[in-house]
Amino acid sequence: MALSFFDQFMSPTYLGIPLIALALTLPWVLFPKPAARWLNNRLLTSQGWFMSRFAQQIFQPINLNGHKWAALLTSMMLFLLTLNMLGLLPYTFTPTTQLSLNMAFAVPLWLATVIIGMRTQPTHALGHLLPEGTPTLLIPILIIIETISLFIRPLALGVRLTANLTAGHLLIQLIATAAFVLLPLMPAVALMTAILLLLLTLLEVAVAMIQAYVFVLLLSLYLQENV
After folding, report:
1. Residue ranges of domains in the chain
2. Member of which family (predicted)?
3. What is the band of 6 on the pLDDT scale with cuts at 50, 70, 90?
4. What is the mean predicted confidence (pLDDT) over 86-105?
5. Which H or E run contains 17?
6. In the structure, what pLDDT confidence band is assigned to residue 5 with cuts at 50, 70 and 90?
7. Which long-range contacts does 216-220 make (Cβ < 8 Å, 24+ apart)?
8. Do 94 and 86 contact (CB within 8 A), yes or no?
C-alpha cells in the first residue's frame, strides 16, 4: 500500500519509451495560436489579456534591461501552470512532481540571472554578499553565509515546487482511498470524507496556480537584483 501511493510519481513508460516527453509537449498543443485576422475569438482575447497583465505585473519594478525576459518568464508561467493543472486530472502524470525536472528549470534560469549581474554590474552583484556596515570580525562569516544562500536559491525553487505538488497529490490519494474504504462500512463518514476530498481538490487547484506564479515571481526578483 505504501509503495502504491508513490507509484503515481513514477515516470510512465510505454514499450520502454518514457512518456514524460509527451507530457511536456502537451501544454503547447492546448494553447490556441494567434490568427492573422483583425478580430480574435474570446479564447485568444482572454489569453492575450492574461499574458499582458501578468507581464505588466511581474516586470513593473524591473528596469528596461530586464524586459527582454518578458517572453521567457511569461511562457514559463503558462507552461508550469498548465502542467500543474493537467496533473490534477485522473489517470494523468504530473512532470512537475519530479525534482530533476524542476531543477532543470530552476538552475539555468537562476544561473543566467547571476551571469547577467556579473557581466553588467559586477560591483553591485558582489555587494550583495556583504551588507553595508558589517563589523570587520563578521565579514568572513557573512560572506560565507551569503554565498551559501545564493547557491541555495535554485534548490529552494525546485524543492518548493516539487514538495507542494507532491504533498497535495499524496493527500488527495490518501483521502480518496479512505472514502472508498469507508463507503461500505460507514456511509455517513464516507460522505463527509468525500466532501473533504472535494474541498481539498479545490485547494490543490489554487496551489497549482500559486506555485507556478511563485516560481516565476522569485525568478523575476533574482533578475531584478542583477539588472
Report:
1. 7-226
2. Belongs to the ATPase A chain family.
3. low
4. 87
5. strand 17-18
6. low
7. 216/58, 216/73, 216/76, 216/77, 216/80, 217/58, 218/153, 218/157, 219/73, 219/76, 219/109, 219/110, 219/113, 219/157, 220/58, 220/59, 220/62, 220/66, 220/69, 220/73
8. yes
